[in-house]
Amino acid sequence: MLLLLYAQPLVKIVTLELRVVDDRSDGMSITLGQRPTEVPAPFAQLLRDHIARRPNLRTGSGPDSPWLFPSTLAGRHLHPNTVMDRLRDLGVNLLGARNRAIGELVLEAPPSIVADALGYSAKVAFLHADKAAEPWARYAGRQIDGP
Known about the structure:
mainly alpha
């Protein structure tokens, strides 16, 4: 969900701590960059369920683990390669999924806001915005032949 909705790299996802999630009565937010970002209702419940049933709490740090994705090794988070292998086994194209997600986000909101919310640099967000709008930029410059 964090890869597909928020274009987060696996290296960052596995290092997220529980404190970045704010679950309030009026909704859930997650802080990935400078500002909290709302988590839409169906995905908020998935995140709540994950937090309530985090794996590896009996083998690692126990229920006091600060990690959103705890490892079997005490005091550590999951290794990015562990998650990468699982997602690839499910047929997820990791780079394609992340690039598509940020491309869609910069079409919905200004790239600078997306960059602040997701922890990207403004330069990266604007590059994705340019790529996402590329077909439309070429379309505007074409001339139509005929009547």
